[in-house]
User: What shape does this take?
Amino acid sequence: MPCRVLYSVSTGAVQLPPKTLHLEDTTVPTLFEPGSIGKLEVKNRLIRSATAERMSDLDGRPEKPLADLFGELARGGVGLIITGHCYVHDGGRCHLNMTGAHRDDLIPDLETLADAVHDGGGLLVMQINHGGRECPENAIPGPPVAPSPVPSTKGKPRPDELNEEGIKEIIAAFGDAAGRAQAAGFDGVQIHAAHGYLISQFNSPAANWRKDRWGSTPAGRMRFLEEVAAAVRDRVGDDYPVLTKLGMEDYVRDGLTLKDGAEIVRHLADWGIDALEVSGGIGGTSVRKDILQLEDEGYYLDAARVARDTTDLPIILVGGMRSKQLMERILEEGTADFISMSRPLIREPDLPKRFLEGQERPACISCNRCWPPPGEYGIACRDPNKED
Ligand SMILES: Cc1cc2nc3c(=O)[nH]c(=O)nc-3n(C[C@H](O)[C@H](O)[C@H](O)COP(=O)(O)O)c2cc1C
Assistant: This one.
């Protein structure tokens, strides 16, 4: 039931940092009430966060297991599914078996994904990405590219510095990929601006040492995202939902700070973005392990609060969100409008239905074994103690 609130939030076992709400006239959403992102009506507040499925062929063409997985997720009740990152340019492929959005001939195969989700009663958003310096040599035709010749924190080779022409080509590729998602019947796109990939490399002072208009100041560093957003919006029109997943803080020396992240957030609505998914971390720090108790959950909650104070856009909170109780509290608090999850939905694609039936927490133990070991195909829960 909708209710009126004026209180400080606590979770019982865990005290959320106090935040007094002044929402006397506001309807408080619960997890299973509809919400909107731009023109998109989402049936509940649960989102499947982008999760690289590695279920496409070596040409980037999605295969049947991926459509089956999306159908299963949709039937499992999640309001919105965001695909794993899809590459917009053949120089931006982050790993083998990544789904491509870089060529028109992929559109019919992409359509099978949208159909599977719609048949299951869900909505599908494509996450579009370019890996920049994170791309391994076996996944791209030439050397990796980046704003500056600064190697990845993961110890990958020194990338080539992009010139003006290369930057413009990639910006246009983001727009073209968004157009393909729209043509294939997807319900929106999400621009991946987190986790140390190309856009996050431009945003980060640790990775972007440029002295030209694409770097040197916060406005220069965020220009790449601004122009990607403009190219996407230009291609898909005013009404098509465009989301972004933004790394608000890098957690590395000389990297993007939360203050810098907030400065980017401040511009998103003006750039035509319809919703913000708050994330952070570069070099693999975005997927924290062992979320086993309430205290470990919601590790981007502080960043989301800064975002909430900075923008009126719908906010999606990801990062170790596990217990239903905490999700409801965060929606009530008003910090986020949607909750997204990745690993729990690998183990239990029908988790939303289970939540409705009374389950309080996912079975996922956040052990990070869901990534396929080298040579293996597709994400799967590989918890050695898994019985179901
Ligand atoms: C196997 C795997 C693949 C992922 N792939 C992506 C991706 O393609 N794009 C992205 O933005 N985040 C990706 N993530 C990060 C998740 O979307 C999410 O931000 C992170 O796992 C924290 O959420 P969780 O605690 O619910 O798993 C991936 C995570 C996992 C475990």
Remarks:
- Residues 164-183 form the longest helix (20 residues).
- The chain is about 30% helix and 15% strand.
